């Protein structure tokens, strides 16, 4: 059975090959390990194999892992839907938030970000495929939201995040990711981040400009939603 370290090597090789195929600079794409439902020991193993950035969807689970792993200099990314009553803890305990889709949430994160911490890195989640089941602002609402968030004092707007409708059709993958890249370019803001691409479509995402790929299954195996 492959180990987490083996899986990291495999995924890193895929990222490297896709980056070269897209004629992009080496190290222009970063690996975000999506560790939701995985035990703290799995993150510790991934850290030992070289990873530093971890993405969590569930706040209480993430806070527990942060306590268990407080001895490690990990960078924490919140990537799940955000409820208003969770913003304070997110503002206090994370370095990045990839899933902001409403101004109210951004305002609360800004107000609640501790003054002794650097500004919170923010990505706006865009519902590029128009799926009713997905979070994210609409493309039409994006310009006003991005301009408003970029003016908030305790946040740094870094770019966009998207989870397009799943498909194995490479052309459809490319079209969705290219749409996200065009949306970001149209904002005329100093943005440097496109958080898009997962285990099944990272090559397409990198070809269309992804700077973070969010990888869970290919690193840690299938998620265990029954784990307490």
Automatic annotation (TrEMBL):
CDD domains associated with the record: PLPDE_III_Yggs_like
InterPro entries: Ala_racemase_N, PLP-binding_barrel, PyrdxlP_homeostasis
One family name in Pfam for this protein: Ala_racemase_N
A molecular function GO annotation: pyridoxal phosphate binding
Modification N6-(pyridoxal phosphate)lysine, positions: 36
CC cofactor: pyridoxal 5'-phosphate
Top-level taxon in the UniProt lineage: Bacteria
Keywords assigned: Pyridoxal phosphate
Domain Alanine racemase N-terminal residue range list: 20-223
Transmembrane domains' residue ranges: none
Function: Pyridoxal 5'-phosphate (PLP)-binding protein, which is involved in PLP homeostasis.
Family to which the UniProt record says this protein belongs: Belongs to the pyridoxal phosphate-binding protein YggS/PROSC family.
UniProt protein name: Pyridoxal phosphate homeostasis protein
């Amino acid at each position: 059975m492959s180990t987490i370290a083996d899986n990291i090597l495999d995924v890193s090789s895929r990222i490297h090959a896709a980056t070269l195929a897209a004629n992009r600079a080496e190290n222009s794409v970063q690996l975000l390990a999506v560790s939701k439902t995985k035990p703290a020991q799995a993150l510790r193993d991934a850290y030992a194999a070289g990873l530093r950035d971890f993405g969590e969807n569930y706040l209480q689970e993430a806070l527990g892992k942060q306590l268990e792993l407080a001895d490690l200099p990990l960078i924490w990314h919140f990537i799940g839907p955000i409820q208003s009553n969770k913003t304070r803890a997110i503002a206090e305990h994370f370095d990045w938030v990839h899933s902001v889709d409403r101004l109210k949430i951004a305002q609360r994160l800004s107000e609640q970000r501790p003054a002794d911490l650097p500004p919170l890195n923010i990505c706006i989640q865009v519902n590029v495929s128009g799926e009713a089941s997905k979070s994210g602002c609409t493309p039409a609402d994006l310009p006003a939201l991005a301009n408003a968030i970029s003016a908030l004092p305790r946040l740094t707007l870094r770019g966009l995040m998207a989870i397009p409708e799943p498909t194995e059709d490479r052309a459809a993958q490319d079209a969705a990711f290219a749409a996200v890249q065009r949306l970001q370019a149209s904002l005329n803001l100093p943005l440097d981040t496109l958080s898009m691409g997962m285990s099944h479509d990272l090559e397409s995402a990198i070809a269309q400009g992804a700077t973070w790929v969010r990888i869970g299954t290919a690193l840690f195996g299938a998620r265990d939603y029954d784990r307490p």
